[in-house]
Design goal:
Layout lengths: L4 H22 L6 H7 L14 H37 L13 H10 L3 H21 L6 H21 L3 H17 L2
Helix pairs in contact: 1-2, 1-3, 3-5, 3-7, 5-6, 6-7
Length: 186
């Protein structure tokens, strides 16, 4: 029995959400279509009913992850200002830096740089939106765009380094130093 268009759209959304989690956790190269589909509660055979390629799914999943991150940061900005958004962004590091970042850039930056052009194009737009989100939260007479770029680049680097370290103390130190420094930026 065929699914309705609404059911097919819901299934596609479930695949995208599962893919975003799998990609951030395991990386683009290591996340297999069968693992992604299993995480969505589906069989691998149904993948091509929804997507033409893994590259298409990767682009869509990482853009969706970026959109979720931006929405959460906007909520943090509205309620707690720039410093609250910084805290929300860095909170995915976990107490030992080993958490899976919500941000596709800190989770997969080097892989994204080598991804298919459609993935890079889509994530370039996401990056612009993320910078614009931080830019609107910077105040204090300093140029918003410059502070947004510095803050985001610093935080992406901090989460990346925190995840690399096998020492919980070092990971926490990196995140906390960056949190304090970026708090002062605006």
């Amino acid at each position: 029995m065929r699914k309705s268009n609404l059911e097919a759209a819901q299934t596609r959304r479930e695949i995208v959400v599962a893919a975003a989690d799998e990609l951030r956790q395991h990386g683009i190269a290591e996340a297999s279509l069968s693992d992604i589909m299993a995480a969505a509660g589906l069989t691998a055979g149904g993948f091509y009913r929804h997507f033409r390629s893994k590259d298409q799914l990767v682009a869509e999943a990482l853009v969706a992850a970026g959109a979720d991150l931006i929405e959460n940061l906007k909520l943090a900005l509205a309620s707690d200002g720039f410093n609250g958004a910084v805290d929300a962004y860095l909170s995915s590091a976990g107490p030992d830096g080993a958490g899976i970042p919500n941000c596709p850039f800190s989770a997969l930056g080097s892989e994204i740089a080598r991804a298919a052009p459609e993935t890079r194009d889509a994530l370039t737009l996401t990056l612009e939106n993320l910078l614009s989100t931080f830019e609107t939260g910077t105040t204090g007479g300093k140029p918003g765009r410059r502070n947004a770029v510095v803050a985001l680049a610093t935080m992406v680097g901090a989460l990346t380094l925190a995840r690399i370290s096998t020492k919980a103390k070092l990971s926490s130190e990196i995140v906390e130093i960056v949190r304090k420094d970026v708090h002062r930026a605006p």
